[in-house]
Amino acid sequence: MKLFLDILLVVTSLLLIALVLLHRGKGGGLSSLFGGGVQSSLSGSTVVEKNLDRLTVFTALIWLISIVGIGLEIKFA
Fold first, then answer.
1. What pTM was estimated for this model as a whole?
2. CB contact at 8 A, 5 and 71
């Protein structure tokens, strides 16, 4: 079980990094310092962005569950 949780943690960590980097900068943050604020913003969010948000939240929840599972495994093993 510990091996499964460790592999799940690594996979979800890498996937979470990739998904966060795929998000478009909303402006005003670090992304605008590197030229992200120059691009024109469209009104509203597209379906792709909404699905990317959902996938990122789902991946973050799996990551959190694997962290808690590893913590419980360490505590009770």
1. 0.74
2. no
* Tokens (6 digits) for 52: 């990317």
Residue ranges of domains in the chain: 1-19+48-77
Tell me if residue 27 falls in helix, strand or coil: coil
Tens digits of residue pLDDT in 2-22: 999 999 999 999 999 999 998
Please choose, from the candidates 21, 51, 27, 58, the residue with its C-alpha nearest in 3D space to the C-alpha of residue 40: 27
Rounded to whole angstroms, the Cα distance separating 10 from 22 reads 19
Q: Which residues contact 16 (CB under 8 A, 6 or more apart)?
A: 56, 59, 60, 63
